Structure formats: C-alpha cells, structure tokens
Recover the amino acids of this structure.
C-alpha cells in the first residue's frame, strides 16, 4: 500500500511583526520552492495552506520543532493518505 502525505499548515494572525518575519524566513528555508515574499504575505494575512509533503522534509517532528523553536504562530497537522483513506 503506497503512503503519501501532506501538511496542513495553519498560519495564525499575530501583531508581532518580528515574529511574522522570522516565521516567513523559516518557512522559506523549509520550502524554498515558495519565495520568501509569498511566505511573508501569507504569514501577514494569516492563512491555512495545504502543502504536499516535500522531499526535503522527511521528519515531521523535526519540522514542527524548527517552527516551535522560533515561537512561530502556526499549527501544523500532518495528513497521511494510505490506500485512499486520510489519516490525521
């Protein structure tokens, strides 16, 4: 059975400009295919984003820790799809 997955990334609105900047920088490093300016706009607005699992992110816990380290205003859910069924 083939397993695939995606991340559901919820960017929460925050007044802290510095934290929004740091969060956008960290996300741009984790997902370099999305330019920093786009991440910054998304973080500034507060938005829910569905991201396909990236090859450079193989460890969900490590990814979550990297955002938690900077106090990023995010909530992250890893959704796996196994044989057509979604598993959270």
């Amino acid at each position: 059975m083939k397993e695939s997955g995606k991340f559901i990334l919820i960017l929460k609105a925050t007044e802290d400009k510095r934290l929004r900047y740091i969060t956008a920088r960290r996300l741009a490093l984790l997902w370099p295919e999305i330019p920093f300016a786009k991440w910054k706009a998304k973080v500034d607005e507060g938005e829910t984003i569905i991201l396909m699992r990236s090859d450079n992110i193989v460890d969900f816990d490590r990814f979550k820790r990297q955002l938690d380290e900077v106090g990023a205003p995010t909530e992250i859910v890893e959704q796996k799809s196994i044989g057509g069924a979604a598993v959270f």
In short: Residues 82-88 have pLDDT under 50 and may be disordered. The radius of gyration is 13 Å.
